[in-house]
Amino acid sequence: MPRWEPDARERLVRAALDLFTEQGYDNTTVAQIAERAGLTKSTFFRHFPDKREVLAAGQDTLCRLLADGIAAAPGSATPLEAVAAALDTAMTAFAPGRRDLGAKVEAVIAASSELQERDALKQVGLAAAMTEALLKRGVPDPAASLAAGFGVLAFQRAFARWSDPANQQELGELARQSLRELQAASIALS
Amino acid sequence: MPRWEPDARERLVRAALDLFTEQGYDNTTVAQIAERAGLTKSTFFRHFPDKREVLAAGQDTLCRLLADGIAAAPGSATPLEAVAAALDTAMTAFAPGRRDLGAKVEAVIAASSELQERDALKQVGLAAAMTEALLKRGVPDPAASLAAGFGVLAFQRAFARWSDPANQQELGELARQSLRELQAASIALS
Questions:
Q1: Distance CA B177, CA B84 (A)
Q2: Which of A6, B40, B51, B56 has its CB surrounded by the most CB atoms within 10 Å?
Q3: What's A140's DSSP letter?
Q4: Residue ranges of domains in chain A
Q5: pLDDT score, position B1
Q6: Which is nearest to A159 in space by CA: A91, A85, A93, A112?
Q7: Residue B173: CA atoms inside 13 Å, Cβ hemisphere, count?
Q8: What is the CATH number of domain A58-187?
Q9: Reduced to 3 states, what is the DSSP secondary structure of residue B158?
Q10: What distance lies between CA B38 and its chain's CA centroid?
Q11: Distance between CA B84 and CA B73 in Å, rounded?
C-alpha cells in the first residue's frame, strides 16, 4: 500500500519545473526531483515513468476532457462549435491554479530538444483525441481531422497567451478567442 | 576518409525496414541492420544516430524541398496555392522509386510506439518548416500555421493513398487532390 502523500503529483511537477529551470532538463535527475519535492524516488515512479513525462502530466486528462466535451456538444453544433465547446470546458476544468506554471513550462520546453519531442507527441495526441471524438459524432474525415487541427492550434495559442504574466484572461476564454481568430484567418487561405 | 559505399543510406533504410517487418522494431539491433545491408556498424552510424532515425531519413530533405517550394511560388499565390505548389514539387522530387516502401513504412510505424513518436515529431517538423516559409513570404500568423496544417494533413493522406499497392497515381498528384478535399471540407467546418 502506498503511503498517503497529499498532492504528491503536483509537488513533483512543481519540483521538476523548478529544477529544469534552475539547472536545465539534462542535468536534473529523478532523485533530485523527488528530494526537492520531499518525496522518495519510488513515489516519483508511482506517478511518472521518467522525468520526461512530468511535464506531460495531465495530457490524458486533457484528452479525455476534450473528447467528452465534443461528445456533449449539442447535436446541432458544427464541427468547430463542438471543438469550441470542448476547449472551453476542458480549459476551465484543467487549468485553474496553474497559471503561474505556464511561463515556466514554455521556457523549459524551449530549452530542451527532448521536451520539444514530448511536446510534439502531445500535440499529435490532442489532435487524435479530438479527431476520434468528432468521427464518433458523425463528422466525416477529412473535416474531423481539420477541425481537430484548428483545436490544437487554438489550444497552443491560448496557452502561450495565458502564460504571459501580463495577461488576465481565463484560458477557456483565450481558447475561444484563438479559435475565432483561426476561423477568420481560414477564409483568406485560398 | 569513409570508404565509398554506393547507396549505403538507401541499403540501410531497406534493410531496417525488412528487419522491422520480419522481427519487429524492438527486436532489431543496429548490428543486424548493418549486416543485412552488407555494411559495417560504423557505416550505419555515419548515416544515422540510431535505429529510430532510419525511418525518418529524408525528413530534412523533405522540409527543405517544401520550404523552397513555398518560397518559389508566384507572389500572387494564396497561402494554400503556395502549399499546393510546394507539395507537388517536393513529392515529385522526393518519392520516385520508393513506392514499394510506402506500405511497409506505414505497417512498421503502426506496430511501434517508439516509431509513432518519431512520426509525430516528423509531422510537427514539417508543419514548422512550412509555417516558417509562409511567414517569410509575408503570410501572417495564424494563417501561416493553418495553411501549414492543411499541408501536413494533405501530405499524410496522400502518402497513405500512395502506399496502397492498388493505387496508380503519383504522390504529387495525390497531394494536390488531398489538399483540394481539405479545402472543400473546410467550408463545412463552421
A1: 9
A2: B51
A3: P
A4: 8-54, 58-187
A5: 43
A6: A91
A7: 6
A8: 1.10.357.10
A9: helix
A10: 26
A11: 9
pLDDT tens, position by position, B61-91: 899 999 999 999 999 999 999 999 999 888 8
Q: How far apart are CA A27 and CA A16, in angstroms?
A: 11
Closest CA to A130 of A117, A141, A115: A141
Report pLDDT digits (tens) over A39-54: 999 999 999 999 999 9
Q: Choosing among A146, A155, A182, A187, which should be mutated to test the B contact, i.e. which has the most B CBs within 10 A?
A: A146
Chain B residues within 8 Å of chain A (Cβ atoms)? 78-81, 117, 120-121, 123-125, 140, 142-143, 145-147, 149-150, 153, 157, 178, 181-183, 185-186, 188-190
Q: Do domains A8-54 and A58-187 have the same CATH topology?
A: no
| DSSP string across B35-97 | HHHT--HHHHHHH-SSGGGGGGTTHHHHHHHHHHHHHHS-TT--HHHHHHHHHHHHHHHH-TT
- Measure Cα distances from A124 to A174, B14, B127 in Å: 21, 27, 12
| Percent of the residues in chain A that have a pLDDT greater than 70, as a whole number | 96
- Left if phi > 0, otherwise alpha if psi is -120 to 50, otherwise beta: which for A4? beta
> CA-to-CA distance for A85 and A172, rounded, in angstroms?
9
- The Cα A152–Cα A119 span in angstroms is 12
C-alpha cell at A139: 463528422
* Cβ proximity of B154 and B179 under 8 Å: yes
d(CA A49, CA A121): 16
C-alpha cell at B51: 535505429
pTM of the predicted protein model: 0.88
Question: What is the overall mean pLDDT for chain A?
Answer: 90
Q: Which residues of A touch B (CB under 8 A)?
A: 78-81, 117, 120-121, 123-125, 140, 142-143, 145-147, 149-150, 153, 157, 178, 181-183, 185-186, 188-190
**A149 to chain B: which residues are within 8 Å by CB?**
146, 149-150, 153
Residue B111 has phi, psi (to 5 degrees) of -95, 0
Class of residue A1 by CB neighbours under 10 A (exposed 0-12, middle 13-18, buried 19+): exposed
Topology of domain B8-54 in CATH is: Arc Repressor Mutant, subunit A (1.10.10)
* ipTM of the shown complex: 0.85
